[in-house]
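Q: Structure tokens for this one, please.
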Amino acid sequence: MSLPDVHERFLDGLLPRTRSDPRIVGVAAGGSIANGVPDEYSDIDLVLAIEDDEFDEVMRGRLALIAAWSPLVAGFTGEHVGEPRLIISLMGPQALHVDFKFVRLTDFATRVDGLRVLWERDGRLSAALAATPPAPPRLDLQWIEDRFWVWIHYGATKLARGELLEAIGFIAFLRETVFGPLIQHRHGKLLQGVRRLEAIDPDAAARLEATLCGSDRGEVGKALLACVELYRQWTDDVDVAFDRNHDAAGLATRYLNEVVGRIRPGAAE
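A: Here is the predicted structure, written as tokens:
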């Protein structure tokens, strides 16, 4: 696999330094490198497997370790994405986004997608991966249906009150939480919000443009209505069983239509 020059230079400098630390059993790459499709804009997602009895010590000194391996410009932990073992970083001298996830060796094989081993001691990472297949998240359409119409009512109340920035942000949330996963599920892809939708399904991505809007009440109303229409259409042919809440759909949709019907043309607030 060919890597972009900046990615290759970074890994060529970093990996020998990680190998010199006997507490590290090996390093693997996830994301676009593991999937064989990196480009110049790709992040580098690294998983560092640590000897179990050394893990706590390594975790305490993670940022210092990274800074010793390569120029660390900025870095922070990943609690906001539910992964406190993660360091999200901007590396130099040429700007590069690198995620470093430190895991115990016994946890290394627990993953949602493929990993590519970059180096390892005694074949221990390869053995762990061979013994445990990835467990990607499944589309839980019932979970979405149980919430979608409550969410639509919420968005309609923001529109009615004139909280347009809140409503616009809410529509982006629907794209990430509902529509992106529906498209990715259709194509057998990992559920990752709206990541690479333009490449995965250009036609569906083009239809999602109806949910984009400026800070005009009428535009926001049309975008919310488009969310309702796309949800109904795209869940009609999905291969996941779920029970529709027709009462919630009817109530929320009527309220949204009432709110949109009261908007004066060109009203911004």
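A few notes: Residues 141-262 form a domain with the Four Helix Bundle (Hemerythrin (Met), subunit A) fold (CATH 1.20.120.330). DSSP finds eleven helices and six strands in the chain.
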